[in-house]
Amino acid sequence: MAGFLGRLRPVVSARPVAHQVFALQVVIVLFLALAAAASLVLQARADGEKEARDRALAVARTFSHAPGVRSALAAEDPSAVLQPRAEAARRAAGVDFIVVMTPQGVRHTHPNPAQIGRHYIGTIGPAAQGGTVRETVTGTLGPSTRAVVPVTEADGRVVGLVSAGITLERVSETANHQLPLLLSATGVALGLSVLGTGLVSRRLRQQTHGLEPAEMTRMYEHHDAVLHAVREGVLIVDDDGRVALANDEARRLLDLPADAEGRTPSAAGVDPDLAGLLAEGRTATDEVYVARGRLLAVSQRPTDRDGGPCGSVVTLRDTTELRSLAGRADAARQRLRLLYDAGLRIGSRLDVEYTSQELADFAVPRFADYVAVDLAEPVLRGEEPAHSDPGLRRVAFRGVRDDVPFLPLGELVRFSPATPQGAGFRTGRSVLEPDMAAFAGWQEPDPGRALEVVAAGVHSLIAVPLRARGVVLGVATFWRSRQPEPFDQDDVALGEELVARAAVSIDNARRYTREHAMAAALQRSLLPRALPEQNALDVARRYLPALAGRGGVGGDWFDVIPLPGARVGLVVGDVVGHGLHAAATMGRLRTAVHNFSTLDLPPDELLWHLDELVTRIDQDESGDGEVAPVTGATCLYVVYDPSTRWCTLARAGHLQPALLQPDGRAGYIDVPAGPPLGLGGLPFESAALRLPPGSSLVLYTDGLVEDRHRDIDEGLELLRRALADSAGGPEETCDRVLEALLPERPHDDVALLVARTRTLGDDRTAAWDVPCDPSAVGAVRAEAARTLAAWGLDDESFVTELIVSELVTNAVRHASPPIRLRLIRDRALICEVSDGSSTSPHLRRAATTDEGGRGLFLVAQFADRWGTRYTADGKVIWTEQPLPEGRRADGG
Predict the structure, then answer these.
(1) Which pLDDT score is estimated for 502?
(2) I want to staple 420 with a disulfide (CB 3.0 to 4.6 A). Which of 37, 345, 431, 609 is the partner?
(3) What is the C-alpha to C-alpha distance for residues 119 and 150, in angstroms, rounded to an integer?
(4) Which of these, 380, 367, 375, 377, lies nearest to 394 by C-alpha position?
């Protein structure tokens, strides 16, 4: 090594720069080539070992899953079967050994037959548990990398182990085979690098013309030409504080005389402050000094660093024009920042008045001292303003002081064309009033108030119209008082940009207000305005639409439907989505439920018909991509019979109803879950239970219990607790539930229905079993007449006897037993005749020559309503007769 360095020293110490660079690069390239070759060899060895581990694992797994291995392990002599197979697989796979052993490690196979029956050397615990072992250990064949895998039965039981491995000697041989190739590649790379270095050195020698370092130093010492050509002043001051050198730019900036060299800066006419800095010789960076009416940025550094001569070097830059440009750039940057912040802070809600106040709050005091926003009256209702009526209402105001008498909030002002606000609203162009003390028309419509405003120090204003999508919505007015300079045209441009951003947000809020009003009006027209009169349930309901940002209204709905036989149906549903489409869809489903309820269908059948309807609706509207599908809507339908206290329920994807017992216990009714409407494929099932008198059914939508900040199970538990803690009637229960569960701004619609059950007493019902004999009709008719007399309904006796006679006679003649008659005195007189037949009677007109066929026609003429409903045992034919006001049953 010493001899090599000795031979290299003359080359390195060669005087030309190119030779020195060449020698240094050759040394670096040689070092990098040797390092690369070493790393490649190590990488090749590492890759060989990794390949060996992977091959061992693959061979072991393949052999463990080979056909016949498990059966051979169960044979009397596994070695006789497995030894030849293992050796054949070992030679084919290129590994050094394949050992099959028991789960305890006793070998069945080995390349050396003498090792069969002995314990395996290595780790087998994880493999015996069903895992895999990969390790490098020293075994009977020497150091090797190996893998052990289990042989398992179909039930996962380990019946044997298979180990495959490759000795490290073979891995090293593989890596050594690659060594000549790596060394050859390294040599080629080294040669190419030396060749490239030689070419670079040759190019460098050509560029430097073979100069020695000393010659190059002398060349760069000729710097006068460069100093006199730069656009920056350069001064060199020696250790005596005298000017040693001044270039042309320094002479121009400081107005130095021709004989300035050798004189002190003060004697050369330099301004005192700058002369003091030069005399001190301290370090300075871009310090600003005034010299000859110019602003100079001065930097000073000592020259005695690293053994240099004593003194300092000074650079001078003229920043007079740069300072002016920097001021304008800073103002522009501040305005851009103002507009950027306005885009972030204005328009956070879809509310016209709130967004207007955001504009006023943001602009004070960053842009103006007082800001007012006046909007046309129709804009507040979501409509477009009419330019013929410039009546503007003040909806937002902000100022730095509260004692300036501007127009108050909420006041409607009609600005004349002479005012900036009136002119801006009519023309759509901004109006600048730089001098308010001139009173050039802006003081209308209140001159007295205008005098007080000017007396408070307000001196200029800008009226900027709020214009969005070609419509002028109102006017934003900016006033200035604290800053003495009035508004100028640059301020007008900035105000227009600021107001333009706010106007878009205000217009979005206006359009949302219009859509929300339309959706709310539609929804109010579709939801029940008043609950129908009935005596079966005491009902209270609440409906709360989602607030701004969620479409305003949605598809949650409820209904109370009187049914024949003094029964009542309760419905709660939820349509996916918000807005007009959800409200319209809700109306369609509510109408459909009303229509299906007239058929007096059981709850599960009614939901089945509703599901079919939703499917047809989605099929008809599937071609219109803008219409959201109805599929996914949910519904809960409940029928309560006060005479029997039986309640039948069915649901389609809806949450389970809650039940509040008369003793205060609360829980949920287990109703079989059906799919949401429109999915089809699964039947709907109903549940039936008998309710104690005074129980409360609680029907609701998911918006009541589901929230982004809590899980639905937590919401259901909160509802149960709120019901258990509630006291009083259904109205108080509704208030208690909403207070306990609803956040301040719910993100979904909420529909809540609380119905307390009532019971029909024995004094309001009467029932008779009718024998299947025509002679029994008269006796039943007489019993009905006596009952009506007891109820004080003698005036209704004739019609009722006719109805009873016809319906019972038809049941005896055409139906099958059991036949039963029931009278109910509710808000109407109800007559029900049930039988065991499913055949429904039909109304027809009898011809003149017909002997029969007029009975049901007479029933339809005398009864107010009549119909048929089917039960599990047959059918019921019912009629309703109106009762006088004083004879109706109350809701007790």
Answers:
(1) 87
(2) 431
(3) 16
(4) 375
